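Obj.: predict assembly geometry.
Materials: sequence records (below).
Method: joint structure prediction, all chains together.
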Amino acid sequence: MSVYIQTGFTGLAYDLNHPRIAHRRRGAANAVASTEASGFAALNAGNVRVDSAWRPTALPANWSTIFNLPRAVGYVGIAAHDLGTQNADITIQTTSDAGSTWDTVAGLANLTPTDDSAILCLFEQETFDGYRVLINSADSEPTIASIAGGPIMEWPQKSVWTGTPITEGDRITFADNMSDTGLLVGRTVVSDGLEFQVQIDNLSEAFRTGDFATFKAYANGEDALFFIATRPGDYPNEVAYAWSSSLVRMSRDRPNKQISGSVTLDLMGYRQDLG
Amino acid sequence: MADESAYGRETVQIVEIEQPRCVNRFGVAPCTATGTPKCYNVYWTCLDTPNYNGTGSIKWRFSRPQDQLRWVYEETDANNIATNCIPMVRSVSATSSRINIGANRKGESPLGTRASVRIQMQDIPWDDHVGDFYLADRTAPAKRPGFWALWTVRNPFYPNIKIRVYEGYKGQALSAMQVRLYDLENVSGPDANGRVTITGRDPLDKARRRKAKFPAVSQIDLAADIDASTQVIPVTCLEAQLTAAYGNTGATKFIAIDDEIIEYTGYSGTEPDLTLTGVRRARLGTAPAEHSENDAVQRVGRYVNIRPYEVAEDLLKNHTEVDNSYVNTGGQWDDEGQSYLSTIKVSATIPESEAVEDLLGELCRDGLFSIWWDERLQRIPLLAVRPPGQTPVVWTDAENVLQKTYSKTVKPDDRLTRVSIFFKPRDPFAAQDDVKNYENRRVRIDGEVELAEAAGGEIVENVIYSRWLQTFGNALLVGASQLLRYRLPPEYATVTVDAKDRDASIGDVIDLETRHQLDTEGNRVSKRWQVIDATETKAGEKLQVEMQSYLYVGKFAIIMENTAPIYSLATAEERLNGCWIAENTGLMPDGTEPYLLQ
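Observations (raw structure tokens):
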């Protein structure tokens, strides 16, 4: 799991050790690609699902979307893919002239994911006409599911420094089969995805009725899946493509509207190793 | 970790539902459909059903969300695709077939216990991004409905829809996984919570249903009064009613009117007013009689001098809806039959419509074989009651049997001390248990197990009324086989083994070595069992195996090639399948029992 950060980017309103959630998707319905394998259309990667995906038929390849109107974009995320397995080299680009020219985001060129876990690229949020993911090279054509781009949600407080980190959140148990004489004859790994918790305190009423309200409506709604990076500056591996297993809501912990709110997100997500 | 023998294997389950779909495109010749909504290429959404051509297919694949599988989309061509795994499976529970060896266990179907599967899913919003040729022409609903909510509306019936359950391990190719096949039986739901329950049954179930009858109920009426001797038999029916084959008598066919069977070889006239030709009255042990206009005429089934398994094959292939490709697949029935069942041939007359399942049960019993649906092999195998064809697998306490899983039951009520077989019935219309109707009877008694000192002196008799058996030799074989298996109370052992032993399947013979099996001196002994049920209680983790005590006296002798080795140099496998003449002592050179020539 990796967060990639634009060179020199230190955050919008808050530094990069504040949690980021990316849930707003822009232009997915306009997705196109340089090539598409049969059954792996570009549009398949525009939704939240990871069971539908885009796969090019030739490299280099690109997946792009041009918005109907210029929109704010501060992140590009890739939820599920085999870029690591395929030793892929990718670049994130934006356009301000409806796709006539594409500008590589500084520091987001020639990224080489080391595994197949979720990727979140953060950069200066500006108004763009679109964005694209360029696959420069790979061992063979990779498969990518759920590419998203849009404005990022920055949390005004850091998350509480306790609990299970995302990278320790694998829900795994072992089922051991012992023979009648006590020999271990088989072991099965029983996996149940990724589970972790994020708690953020001292949130204001203004945040609750603003950014948080939008996020809450999304996370409790039909699509529900989002990218989350709990402390992208210091811990770039702490990122996941996740959903909440319980109702997302804020509680009031103290009678001060500047710091009254507290949110605990019970999250589940996709594990790093796709089978 | 990509196979069952690896420590740390991670199980995955994939449910695949394959349904036919039309290969035409909406409004493109030969399809003449117009209007909206456009179809989804399945029958009940078709706007031009006369041109519906369901020779394409879509395989919907589903997985457990936690399995997080890679993309397995496949496309043979545009009309035959398999989707990626839609992550909505909550649970899969399957019941294996349970074989009824030789159809001998009472109270069970001769075809054994049916295999079934029950799959629970959680419906999820669906956007038709795959499987819909006309997605771009539609207006998406404001709120996306669930996959199953849509599917059940588009598919109110389930003809020729198959379920495959793949069970394997993460990293394993689909083709390397174990796969079980069923017919889709029902889709229930989604309920208010979005829960969907899907059930599947084994394809052999089509032979169990009431409508699988032999011969089929005829729709033939006698068109005029006839006396007891006339050779002119006018009937009213479709030609197909007279030409359909019910047995192996070729052009010679039979009808029954009341209790008389009449032979014919053809017909004349114009449908539906037909007259039988080549008529011979009062055939197959029946008496001539007068009959009245509008009397019901029933086609008669008749098999003559044919191997029982060939009758079973004909019944399944031609008189049930069972897919023919599942029967005698790759000639397996012929191989098994010709190797082990070649001595028995049977004849029978079936004058009234009877359940195919019952007839198959009689054939299994009298033909000394078993058939069942093997959901993993995806076919209906045939297994003779015979010694193992290869060296049995050895399972031990240390390597195979899991802790505290061994159990054994003994069924003293199922034992036999004698078998009486009545065969060659005189009147095919008489009740099957009417002993006076049979020409012959063969009784086989095991004197030892009828001794008061040995077993309490109780006589336990199995009486078989066989319309199929024709000779004393065949009756002897059936009686001997039954007594051999059941002279002692049959035993059933159940063990659970690790998935590394998941290749064990129904019909396999296992040599079990466990501390629970002792001789009179307290030494553990190896005992031979036959698998009658193999169910993965935890898919990819554990296999529960039920076995029946396996008794077969002697070795099945097969004449060998010139290059065969002498006995002392032969491998265990060769000794199992070959034939050597015994020493003067009556034993083989290594002191083991001699071969028996049957």
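Conclusions so far: Chain B touches chain A through 51 residues (CB under 8 Å).
To do: check interface contacts against the pulldown list.
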